[in-house]
Every structure is written in C-alpha cells, then in structure tokens.
Amino acid sequence: MRQTFDESTDPSFGSQHVPLIRQAMSRHGLDGLLVPHEDEHQNEYLPAANDRLGWATGFTGSAGAAVIFQDKAAIFVDGRYTLQVRDQVDQGLFEIRDLVEGGVTAYLETAARTGQTIGYDPRLHSPDALERLKVAAARAGAQLKPVTPNPLDEAWGMARPSQPTAPVVPHPLQYAGEESSAKRARIGQALGASGADAAVLTAPSSIAWLFNIRGGDVIRSPLPLGQAILNADGSARLFLDPVKVTPDLPAWLGNEVRLETPEDLPAALKDLASKRVVVDPGQSSAWYFEALADAGALVVRSEDPCALPRACKNAVEIAGARTAHARDGAAVTRFLHWLATEAQTSLPDEIEVVSKLESFREATGALKDLSFDTIAGAGSNGAIVHYRPTERLNKRTQAGSLLLVDSGAQYLDGTTDITRTVAIGEPTQEMRERFTLVLKGNLALARVRFPAGTTGSALDALARIALWERGLDFDHGTGHGVGSYLGVHEGPQRISKAPNMVALRPGMIVSNEPGYYKEGAYGIRIENLQFVTAPEPVAGGERPMLGFETLTLAPIDRRLIDRELLTPEERRQLDAYHARVLEVVGPQVEPDIRAWLVEATAPI
Ligand SMILES: [Mn+2]
C-alpha cells in the first residue's frame, strides 16, 4: 500500500517540542518566533523534514501558521481546519485563531510587547507577507529579526528527518511534447523582450517543467526540490543536490544547462550584480529578494515566467492526459462496480475502500504514485472537506448513507483527480435532490462556451446556481489547475469565488468539482477534470468561443439522480457523457464489469 493510515503527529507534540524551541529562541535572544506552514519552496505538500508547523504543534493541515512566544503561543488555521486543529493541537499550549480573519498580523499587533524581538526564517516567508508582519510588529513596538539557522530546526536537531533525495530523472519528450531547449529559448526570449536579463526559479513544478525532469522529493508529486537561474539567451544554471543526479541527467540537460549544487546558489546570485532579474514574490521567499538586493541586482517582481506556459498543455500533453484518464477511468470503474455490488452488502470501512481503489490503480501497472491521499468519507465524514481516513477515525459504511471518494493518480502521461459520491443502500429523497443539484452545477460548468479573456472567477457561479436557487452553497473553490505528471494543484488559473485575474486559455486543465455538505450527516462532491478547448465559431454567432472537453471518464451514480430535476438539455448532456464512458472504458474492463457499466451508463 502507498497510502498509510497512521497519524504522523499527536497532541503531545506541543508539550514535547515547544520547550525545546523556546530554549533555542533564548539562545538567539528571541522573545517570539514565527512558524509558517510553508517551506523553502513554498510547497503545499511538504517533505517530512520541512513540516515545521506539524512538529511544533501537531497540526498537519495544508495551510496554517503559529507564533511561539516565551510565555504564550497561538496557532492559525482557516475554516477548513477548525475541527481538525482542535483534535490535533494541545489547546493548553496554543490558542486557536483564524488564519484569514485578522490572522498572524492582527495577532502580532496585540500580542507583541514593546521592545520584544521576534525571529523569523527568511527562507520561509514571502516578501509581501513579511512586510505586513514587520508593520504589525512595529505597531506593537516590537521588531522582527531574521535568524539563521532557524531556532526550530536547531531544536528539532537529530530527530529531524533528512532532506529528501529522490533521484531526478529525464521526463521523455513523448510525454513532455517540447524540448527543454525550446522551452528555455521561448521563456528566455520573453524575459529579454520585457527588458530582463534572467529569472530566478524556485517553484519545483516550474523547474520540473522547464528542464523536462521529474523527481520525488514531495509526497504524491514527482517534484524535484531545487533552484534555477534562467538567462535571457536560454542558458541556465540548475541547482540540485548531487546525490539526486542520475547518470543520464547531465547529457539530458545538455551543454546550455550548468548543473550545480544548492551550496553554489548564494555565489550564483552574486553573479547577477547589476542585472535585471525576475523573481516571483508569490513563489520565492524574502531570502531571494534580500540576497539579490545585497548582490546589487535589480529585482523585477513578476510572475514566475514558467507558470503560464506550464499551465497551457501542448498537444502531446493533452493526448497523454486523455490516455491517462482512459486508463484511470477503467480502474475507477472497476472500483465503482465493486461499490455497487459486493460492497452494498459487505459494508466496508473507509480504509478498505481506499485500499480497494488503490489495488485497482496499482493493477494498471502504470501507477507512479497517488496524486494525493484518497479521501474516503463515509456518512458524516463525507461532510469534512479535507478528511483523510486514519486507523483512529476510520468509519464503516452503512446502508442508507452516502460514500464520498476523492482520489487521483500520477502516471507518466498525466495526473488525475476524480470524485464520485455513491449510495450505499437506499438513499433518501433529500440526498437525491442535493446530489442532482450538484450534478446540474457540474454539467453547467462542463458545457459553457466563453470568449477569450474570461477568467475562472467569472465562471464559478455556473457551478452554484442550482444550489443557490434552493438556498444552498458549498465552501470551497469549484476548480483548480492540474499539472501534467506534476502537482495535482497547479496555478495560475482557478475557478473560484475568490478573484483570479488569469484568463482561461486553450490547453489549461482545471477541475470541475462542486459539492454539498450537510454537517454531521453526509457529503456530496462530483469532480471531473476538463481542459480548455481552442476557440471555435458558434453557428450563427459572431465571435469564436472557447469551451471545455471533459477528460475524466467514470460513471456517475444514477441511483442518486432525480431525473425530474434535470432539463432535457442536461439529460442529453449526461447521456452523451455516459455514452463516452462506455465507449472508452467498456472495452478495457472484464465482461461482468462491462455488463454492469452498460446499465450504469444507460440513458437517464
Ligand atoms: Mn480536485
């Protein structure tokens, strides 16, 4: 099994580790210390060695922060994690506060005292966030001070896991679709045209994409941790731990890429003196901005130049995504068949559900990893959006309940992410009604046509209108970008209420995942990945329109659909989708599963 069900922390972490952190703070003369969730690479999923917030507090969510003073401490989480944080963190040690409402800055203004010194690790904070924190501390009469090495790392000491050293390997052209040299020339040219001499790249996904390489330093994503400097002439310097460099790599990178070690990076930044250097304040920490300013470089704050080209998948990547989704669809269909038959009477628990699904994906022979830990939420656990089953929380499915399964896979040719909600036993009329409303949102966002320049924010409401009409909604984004054998959450595009200025462009892959959650009862989510298609003229129209093509192929539980709530157009759309599922997945699965699939995809 790839997925595990143990808990990597427990609530005693605070009482065990905070005293050690406070001792280390004392040695540096600090009254307080900032502990963000983010690591040196602004990763969402962290290698164990970089999960400082988890080690200090016990909290394992994907976003958050803590501030540790000598005499008090607070932890900050967003609305997704209010239940989890109470479960994982010692509230005698940490006051629990809202990360979004006020957050760390508001806390510093009231919690810090005149004359205090609060330490921070400049490698872990974005320059903009740090500036706001400095202002807040100053309002309280305190000051922020960069501290190296991080006192928390010193306190962690020998117990800290070692830095990951997964081998970095070539990502062949049959999957990447464009030579690294062509990518570097293209991005370098754009840099030059904007008046820049170079860009510093620190996002692992950008480095993987630009050099056509993959690694395994971050769990569930084939990301190599490292840094790079790309010059306007297309040449580059790539900084990787030498133990990760596989024999084929130097030749794969070619003569225009100089392979160096992370220890060479500070000197390399000094070489950029008097050059105009692009750095992304959303991706690179304050440390880079300070190091470049110290070196006498002219820092240009601008988006990572690889972010947008990486998001717009080329024809080879889209073809790979289709193949990956056809393969994954067959594995998921075998799983859904099991849920619809054997599991209806055996009533498996969540861990058995996760294991079963993983076994079907493993059997494809092509699975490189899961793209994230499978969320299997039985009954009320389905209403916890970021739920992950563990031995302690594991729950058995029951007749008359819903089971929500959100999962994905990493294959060489593509990354998948799919959610299906299925009925165990006989669903209630309310469950069917709400499921159908969610389905209407998913269908609306799949069939929309839109002009060039439209952002994901402008489309978000389409996935919610059916819910809104009944006084319902869901509290998460509708869609996120997805990488090509890279991170399952990848910007810069998003479909969400939160403003996002990035226009959707052909080749971008996004998820379409509306949901509905009834706390303490059940959760519903339907998620397909879809990509933006090229502009096409509309019959009788005046302007060409972009649209979406759905990649994900697996049946949607017909027992949960109230057909009376669907319009004729929605019924046709659902039937056409199911016909495609049968056409692509049917020939791949065993005769008994195929027979079931014929019924599961029958016209509504
Ligand atoms: Mn998703």
Automatic annotation (TrEMBL):
<dbReference type="InterPro" id="IPR033740">
    <property type="entry name" value="Pept_M24B"/>
</dbReference>
<keyword id="KW-0031">Aminopeptidase</keyword>
<keyword id="KW-0645">Protease</keyword>
<dbReference type="InterPro" id="IPR036005">
    <property type="entry name" value="Creatinase/aminopeptidase-like"/>
</dbReference>
<dbReference type="InterPro" id="IPR029149">
    <property type="entry name" value="Creatin/AminoP/Spt16_N"/>
</dbReference>
<dbReference type="InterPro" id="IPR000994">
    <property type="entry name" value="Pept_M24"/>
</dbReference>
<dbReference type="GO" id="GO:0070006">
    <property type="term" value="F:metalloaminopeptidase activity"/>
</dbReference>
<dbReference type="Pfam" id="PF01321">
    <property type="entry name" value="Creatinase_N"/>
</dbReference>
<feature type="domain" description="Creatinase N-terminal">
    <location>
        <begin position="21"/>
        <end position="149"/>
    </location>
</feature>
<keyword id="KW-0378">Hydrolase</keyword>
<feature type="domain" description="Peptidase M24">
    <location>
        <begin position="321"/>
        <end position="533"/>
    </location>
</feature>
<keyword id="KW-0479">Metal-binding</keyword>
<dbReference type="GO" id="GO:0046872">
    <property type="term" value="F:metal ion binding"/>
</dbReference>
<dbReference type="InterPro" id="IPR050422">
    <property type="entry name" value="X-Pro_aminopeptidase_P"/>
</dbReference>
<protein>
    <submittedName>
        <fullName>Aminopeptidase P family protein</fullName>
    </submittedName>
</protein>
<dbReference type="Pfam" id="PF16189">
    <property type="entry name" value="Creatinase_N_2"/>
</dbReference>
<dbReference type="InterPro" id="IPR032416">
    <property type="entry name" value="Peptidase_M24_C"/>
</dbReference>
<dbReference type="Pfam" id="PF00557">
    <property type="entry name" value="Peptidase_M24"/>
</dbReference>
<comment type="similarity">
    <text>Belongs to the peptidase M24B family.</text>
</comment>
<dbReference type="GO" id="GO:0005737">
    <property type="term" value="C:cytoplasm"/>
</dbReference>
<dbReference type="InterPro" id="IPR000587">
    <property type="entry name" value="Creatinase_N"/>
</dbReference>
<dbReference type="Pfam" id="PF16188">
    <property type="entry name" value="Peptidase_M24_C"/>
</dbReference>
<feature type="domain" description="Peptidase M24 C-terminal">
    <location>
        <begin position="544"/>
        <end position="604"/>
    </location>
</feature>
